[in-house]
Automatic annotation (TrEMBL):
Keyword Glycosyltransferase set for record: yes
Listed Gene3D superfamilies: Glycogen Phosphorylase B
Name the record gives this protein: Glycosyltransferase subfamily 4-like N-terminal domain-containing protein
Keywords in alphabetical order: Glycosyltransferase, Transferase
SUPFAM superfamilies: UDP-Glycosyltransferase/glycogen phosphorylase (SSF53756)
InterPro entries, per database record: Glyco_trans_4-like_N
Length: 417
């Protein structure tokens, strides 16, 4: 018997169907999706979630997450995520259609909340067939991300066709939705340009952080965290949190560290990731960092361990490729760093990062390819560190705490009920 069987519980009182191709047992599920669901259910109860879960993660975390959801009155229909190539995605999409239509037929949802494009396609069908209201929580310009990230190569006719089809679907989703949720103010004019017949309201809800989970360390906690990393209390610690592939300018961040380490004997780098490989050490050496390799710490951390690791650092690095699709991106890692009182050094041209950094006085925005920009930031490292602390956390709390997102989602639901 599949571990996913028997998870559907029937009710005639469910009002909202939340569809996500991302799993609740994924790291993103715990940090972003579930907290939002818990806020949504308070003003749009009852609620059912349809999600796709990796089998290994579901086996280890599914029961715990199921109990958490049940305690708040959220019903959950988890489906197994099919691993493989393009065919597996088509299979999953077909299953998403079939299960969602079945659930809609049984319960008659008044609102379909669609997280990203695959779920949006299903929500579009349910709106057409059953007249439900549709919230398109787009999360970014997914179609163009596939191209910008090199996943859909435009020299291949199959990928060109997929791009054209999905750009057409994108327009339909934007035009049909009763409410669109975007991550950045920067992308809103572009959405209006892409879908000039769009009539639904757009609400911007940036990626927020749980300020209860990400907190400023006490001096004692900071000392303990640094000791575990083998760092002295007075070391200057740059940190990076997250994945290393596709969008993230690892070479530029390593190069920044190398230049800083060459300038100052106290500079160290902490990389918090599950993606580090031997090839990354080779990239560090190729960038002239062999002499500074002993000052690099690489840690694979659970969500529970991340706040202490961020909190014991002085400045967070976040360099993301500033492609067209990234005007729609909101880096969660920055909200988490600010919650811990840690300022940032970011690159220009990513979502609302430029404006957000200035408004919150949260750090420095630069061009990593500009040697003068890099040199200036390195010379100001102590000044950037001084920006951090309780005041930064207080400033960020007003716009980046999960409670802010919860209030915005409440307004979204009020607009469609």
């Amino acid at each position: 018997m599949s571990p996913f069987e028997g998870c559907v519980r029937i009710s005639n009182r469910e009002a909202v169907l939340f569809i996500s191709y991302d799993g609740l047992t994924d790291p993103l599920g715990s940090s972003q999706i579930i907290p939002y669901l818990e806020s949504i259910v308070r003003h749009s109860s009852p609620l059912r979630v349809l999600s796709f879960e990796k089998l290994d993660r579901f086996d280890s975390q599914g029961a715990e997450i199921g109990r958490r959801l049940e305690s708040t009155g959220i019903r959950w229909t988890p489906l197994e995520f099919t691993r493989g190539g393009k065919l597996s995605k088509i299979i999953d999409l077909i299953r998403m259609y079939l299960i969602a239509v079945t659930l809609q037929w049984r319960h008659g949802y008044s609102v379909i909340h669609c997280r990203s494009y695959q779920a949006g396609q299903v929500g579009w069908l349910l709106k057409r067939l059953f007249g439900a209201k549709m919230i398109f929580d787009m999360r970014g310009l997914w179609v163009d991300e596939r191209v910008d990230g090199g996943l859909w190569l435009q020299r291949r006719w199959v990928d060109r066709m997929a791009y054209r089809i999905y750009k057409s679907i994108e327009v339909s989703l934007l035009t049909t939705s009763d409410h669109v949720v975007a991550l950045t103010n920067q992308v809103v004019p572009e959405l209006r340009r892409l879908a000039p017949k769009m009539t639904g309201k757009v609400t911007v809800i940036p990626c927020c952080a749980d300020f209860g989970h990400f907190a400023i360390l006490t001096p004692g906690e900071r000392a303990v965290a640094r000791k575990r990393l083998g760092l002295s209390p007075d070391a200057f610690l740059l940190s990076y949190l997250g994945s290393l592939g596709t969008w993230y300018m690892l070479d530029e961040m390593l190069s920044f560290f190398v230049d800083a380490a060459a300038s100052r004997a106290d500079v160290n780098l902490l990389v918090i990731t599950k993606d580090w490989e031997e090839s990354h050490w080779e990239r560090l050496r190729a960038l002239g960092g062999e002499a500074f390799a002993s000052r690099v710490r690489v840690v694979s951390a659970s969500r529970e361990e991340v706040p202490a690791l961020i909190g014991c650092s002085d400045v967070m690095l976040s360099f993301i490729r500033p492609t067209y699709s990234k005007i729609a991106s909101s880096p969660t890692k920055l909200a988490e760093a600010y919650a811990c009182g840690v300022p940032s050094i970011c690159n220009r041209g990513v979502g609302d990062v430029d404006a957000q950094t200035e408004a919150l006085e949260a750090g420095v925005v630069l061009d990593p390819s500009d040697s003068d920009d890099v040199r200036c930031a390195i010379e100001r490292l102590d000044n950037i560190r001084a920006i951090g602390g309780v005041d930064l956390r207080v400033r960020a709390n007003k716009s980046l705490d999960l409670s802010v997102a919860a209030e915005l989602y409440r307004d979204v639901y009020r607009s469609v009920h």
